[in-house]
């Protein structure tokens, strides 16, 4: 028995080690449970922040539309009606979209200063935030053309393709150099020098005044961006032929020759005759 006692005592630490290892070993499902808990915690936190951000965005959009409604009631409803239905003084704005408001109000054409063949560009009466609020309010009443994305307004497209598109679709009214020109019944195509890219895009999209509408099926957004690039090129590139005479074409050049060229010849002739006498 005495000989067996040391053996029994030697086996106890081994059993204790196995018991400790068994007690320290994780359950096979513990890792999966931890992953599930982590995913639930991450998803819940993300959902909480997303919901909060969405609620804040929605509240900000509603506040912007409310501000736009107040501006509209104070400055536009007299002609266009409180519900955008139009009156004898102004057309309906239902379905014109935010792009139309961005162009008309952002270029100062609206509010209209006086009746005439067409609204003329003048100093803008509102800040950018107010123009945006008016656009959001009108767009909230009915779907319509939206304000273009910034990616199409950089002026970094294909200027050669833009020039071709401009000659085909725009030059007959605006002149190939964008100098503008006269139309019928007192109307005119305005010059396009220095026009903001978003207003050029808005005009193509909505067709203000006598201008036709060029929707995305007629001219794609990328092609509109190329037209903007061409107009930017005209703004930044000086006339390679010297004094451009307003870039109005052969009529202005011929008139210049008749008045100043022939006039100068007649004046020199008279001077020489008077000197000989």
- Please, how many helices? 10
The main sheet orders its strands as 1-2
The CATH class assignment of the largest domain is Mainly Alpha
Mean pLDDT: 84
Low-confidence stretches: none
Q: In percent, how much strand structure appears in the residues?
A: under 5%
Label the CATH architecture of the largest domain: Orthogonal Bundle
Helix content: 55-70%
Order of helices and strands: HHHHHHHEEHHH
Distance between the termini: 162 Å
- β-strand number: 2
Decide which structural class fits the backbone.
Answer: mainly alpha
Provide the gyration radius in Å: 37 Å
Query: What's the structural domain tally?
Result: 2
At the fold tier of CATH, the topology name of the largest domain is Cytochrome Bc1 Complex, Chain D, domain 2
User: How would you sum up the global shape?
Assistant: elongated
Largest sheet at a glance? 2 strands, antiparallel
Q: How does this model look, in words?
A:
By secondary structure, the protein is mainly alpha-helical. The chain has two domains: 37-145, Cytochrome Bc1 Complex, Chain D, domain 2 (Orthogonal Bundle); 148-237, Cytochrome Bc1 Complex, Chain D, domain 2 (Orthogonal Bundle). 59% of the residues lie in helices and 1% in strands. The protein is built from ten helices and two strands, in the order αααααααββααα. The chain has helices at residues 4-24, 30-75, 77-80, 97-106, 128-141, 159-169, 171-174, 197-206, 221-236, 250-276; strands at residues 181-182, 188-189. It starts with a helix and ends with a helix. Residues 63-142, 157-235 form the Cytochrome c domain.
